[in-house]
């Protein structure tokens, strides 16, 4: 269930290939999911509801109006307020089909439906509407569902609610009215915090960040982010998004080291299927690394499915690597539409400074002494007084530690110092340490991320299974013992 | 017309007149009066109530705050500038669509960028920059500030100083003067690292001072460790870390190695 918005925009919604013959098994599927939700709600097992949502997403492309309306007839009491409202959102083109279904299923739905099931129906209809690109109906439907949710305070609803929030925001984003719901989202976030609904808080915080960043309101986003309560992430997807937004904010605020870490982590943690999201992460990560003075490896740009999208960034990297201002300028102009649609234009303007630095470093390495006029010529500084410009640029580079050199004003040249043997310093030791720390950290995080289904230790395993497990454990123990023996020699 | 609105616009006219006369005391007195009166309008931020006079009220309030910003620059009060600017900002961002664009918008936004630059709040500078549209970035007032920041980052300090002659708006001069001071400190910091010694007249030129006396005063005040010897300015560089780098940081190494051992123990 990878639902990154970037992904979704590329998806082709529901292929209309399924004939009516497949409606029945689909309806059956939905009914099974409904049963899952009912038992989940009854036993207060959030896990089951989570699974129901996952199954629904798998069915997403097959959904049809007729199936949904007959499912609504099954799940909700016909004639009830929710049923009427939800049915009104569905298109009425296949009237006959629908009526047959509702009459047949109406008899079965005498059982009282739980609020979870009602919310689930909202979710189902909403997903269908968005996939059918009926955005104005989706907006109305999502707003109605949010209004309904406000009156429910059950932990078992939280999972469904968090999905609803997501689609609520998405339907407004698709119609370009994201700023309208900001107040609502903030109110929902407050309510979720009061109810200790952590999944809801997580989702809503991300939606709010997305909302702010959509309008480039980095200041507000950062203020909200730094003050909102944080806790262990519940959902990997939400955590990835959070990291991505965090990385963006930090990039804008010039905290490149932290930004790089967040963006790379987001790209790594994102599921493989979320290609659009990973491309975005990579684009930002590339720029941040360039701003840090690093040159991303070629493999970054050659990742499967990303070559084309990352092409402008690849050429940009090349220009920075060579340190050629002219090339940099032409590339920035050539791809300016791409960069401005990615929102990275301002960052690229910042890169100019790095291009000069790289060029300067190359000069400093190649020449032991060079006149400032030549430096200006090589850097292609086009200004009224290139020598004075070059002098102050070089002196700043020296101050910032980018190059190791001294200036001689009287003669107008720059003298590079001999580069010392790096192995005589503590540098290798530090690099070694940071790598080991990274590996250990990765291991610890992996251990912490292990999850066990709740109550698994209570469930009785069958005799056969136990035998199998014991056998495996014995083998493992034997294996380890052998290894220990080997070590002794 | 609403009587309250009339009252406000009358006081505002007097404020404008006071500003023209450069009578700052009267102006700031009138301004605080106006601010109190503005609170009573429901259509202004943060309420944004839809009153019949909303557009008029909003436009008037925006004009008033724009003048407040200009006044604070003229009085050379940076804190007041920040306060007034933040009060003004919602009129550009939140109700920008409802009002006709103000002619003062870009100059004031550029002025704010310049202020952030002078106060060396670069992160906020970039945050503000992100809010501007491509069209705004083309505006000479904003472009001026953006180019300044670039030259400043690159180290092309003389470009920063020549920009003073091409200010797009008379209110910019105050901040440009402040910027010149910041630039001098930067240059001093860079020269200290980049040169071993300089002739006094060169140093004077590089630091953009007009006389030797000024240079000596500057040295005395900011960099007492610099020495002046027979017409040469010698930067006494701290011979950094030549001895310390030879030494092995044993304590740190022991700590690191122990932590590796501990972590390994946990894994195995």
Automatic annotation (TrEMBL), chain A:
Residues 456-481 have a biased composition (Basic and acidic residues). One of its GO terms (biological process) is regulation of protein catabolic process. GO terms for cellular component: proteasome regulatory particle, lid subcomplex. Residues 13-23 have a biased composition (Low complexity). Residues 240-421 form the PCI domain. GO terms for molecular function: enzyme regulator activity. This is Probable 26S proteasome non-ATPase regulatory subunit 3. It comes from Deinandra increscens subsp. villosa.
TrEMBL record, chain B:
Residues 79-251 form the PCI domain. It comes from the Eukaryota. GO terms for biological process: proteasome-mediated ubiquitin-dependent protein catabolic process. InterPro entries: 26S_Psome_Rpn12, CSN8_PSD8_EIF3K, PCI_dom. PROSITE patterns: PCI (PS50250). GO terms for cellular component: cytosol; nucleus; proteasome regulatory particle, lid subcomplex. Pfam families: CSN8_PSD8_EIF3K. Keywords: Proteasome. Belongs to the proteasome subunit S14 family. This is PCI domain-containing protein. The lineage of its organism: Eukaryota, Viridiplantae, Streptophyta, Embryophyta, Tracheophyta.
């Amino acid at each position: 269930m990878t639902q990154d918005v970037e992904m979704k925009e590329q998806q082709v919604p529901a292929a209309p290939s399924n004939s009516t013959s497949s409606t029945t098994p689909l309806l059956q599927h939905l009914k099974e999911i409904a049963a899952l939700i009912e038992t989940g709600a009854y036993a207060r097992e959030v896990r089951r509801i989570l699974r129901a949502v996952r199954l629904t997403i798998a069915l997403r492309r097959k959904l049809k109006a007729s199936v949904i309306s007959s499912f609504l007839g099954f799940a909700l009491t016909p004639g009830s307020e929710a049923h009427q409202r939800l049915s009104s959102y569905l298109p009425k083109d296949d009237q006959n089909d629908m009526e047959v279904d509702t009459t047949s299923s109406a008899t079965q739905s005498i059982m009282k439906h739980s609020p979870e099931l009602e919310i689930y129906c909202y979710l189902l209809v909403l997903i269908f509407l968005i996939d059918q690109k009926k955005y104005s109906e989706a907006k109305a439907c999502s707003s109605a569902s949010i209004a309904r949710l406000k009156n429910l305070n059950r932990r078992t609803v939280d999972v469904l609610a968090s999905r609803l929030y997501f689609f609520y925001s998405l339907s407004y984003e698709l119609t370009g009215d994201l700023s309208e719901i900001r107040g609502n989202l903030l109110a929902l976030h407050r309510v979720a915090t009061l109810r200790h609904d952590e999944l809801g808080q997580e989702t809503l915080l991300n939606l709010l960040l997305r909302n702010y960043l959509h309008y480039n309101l980095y200041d507000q986003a950062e203020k909200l982010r730094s003050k909102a309560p944080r806790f262990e992430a519940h959902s990997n997807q939400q955590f990835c998004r959070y990291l991505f937004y965090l990385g963006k904010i930090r990039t804008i605020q010039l905290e490149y080291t932290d930004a790089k870490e967040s963006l790379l982590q987001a790209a790594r943690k994102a599921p493989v299927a979320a290609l659009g999201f990973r491309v975005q992460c990579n684009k930002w990560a590339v720029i941040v690394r360039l701003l840090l003075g690093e040159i991303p490896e070629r493999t970054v740009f050659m990742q499967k499915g990303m070559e084309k999208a990352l092409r402008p960034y690849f050429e940009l990297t090349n220009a920075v690597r060579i340190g050629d201002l002219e090339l940099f300028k032409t590339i920035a102009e050539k791809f300016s539409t791409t960069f401005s649609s990615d929102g990275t234009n301002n960052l690229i303007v910042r890169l100019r400074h790095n291009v000069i630095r790289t060029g300067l470093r190359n000069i400093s390495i190649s020449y032991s002494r060079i006149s400032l006029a030549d430096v200006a010529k090589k850097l292609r500084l086009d200004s009224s007084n290139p020598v004075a410009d070059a002098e102050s640029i070089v002196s700043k580079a020296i101050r910032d530690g980018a190059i190791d050199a001294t200036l001689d004003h009287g003669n107008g040249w720059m003298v590079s110092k001999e580069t010392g043997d790096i192995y005589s310093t503590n540098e290798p030791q530090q690099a070694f340490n940071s790598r080991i720390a990274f590996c250990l950290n990765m291991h610890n995080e992996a251990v912490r991320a292990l999850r066990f289904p709740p109550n698994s230790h209570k469930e009785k395993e069958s005799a056969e299974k136990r035998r199998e497990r014991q056998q495996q454990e014995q083998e493992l123990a034997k294996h380890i013992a052998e290894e220990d023996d080997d070590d002794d020699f | 017309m609403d009587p309250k609105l009339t009252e406000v616009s009358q006081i505002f006219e007097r404020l404008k007149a006071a500003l023209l006369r450069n009578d700052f005391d009267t102006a700031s007195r009138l301004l605080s009066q106006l601010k109190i009166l503005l609170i009573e309008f429901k259509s202004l931020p943060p309420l944004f109530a839809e009153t019949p006079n909303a557009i008029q009220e909003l436009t008037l309030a925006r004009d008033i705050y724009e003048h407040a910003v200009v006044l604070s620059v003229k009085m050379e009060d940076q804190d007041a500038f920040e306060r007034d600017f933040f009060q003004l900002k919602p009129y550009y961002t939140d109700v920008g669509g409802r009002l006709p664009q103000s002619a003062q918008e870009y100059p004031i936004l550029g002025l704010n960028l310049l202020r952030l630059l002078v106060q060396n709040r670069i992160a906020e500078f970039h945050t503000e920059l992100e809010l501007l549209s491509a069209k705004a970035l083309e505006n000479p007032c904003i472009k001026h500030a953006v180019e300044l920041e670039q030259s400043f980052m690159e180290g092309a300090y003389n470009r920063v100083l020549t920009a003073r002659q091409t200010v797009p708006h008379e209110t910019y001069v105050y901040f440009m003067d402040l910027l010149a001071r910041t630039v001098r400190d930067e240059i001093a910091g860079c020269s200290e690292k980049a040169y071993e010694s300089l002739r006094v007249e060169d140093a004077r030129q590089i630091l953009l001072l007009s006389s030797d006396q000024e240079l000596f005063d500057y040295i005395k005040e900011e960099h007492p460790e610099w020495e002046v010897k027979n017409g040469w300015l010698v930067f006494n560089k701290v011979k950094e870390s030549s001895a310390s780098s030879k030494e092995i940081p044993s304590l740190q190494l022991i700590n690191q190695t122990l932590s590796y051992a501990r972590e390994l123990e946990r894994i195995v």
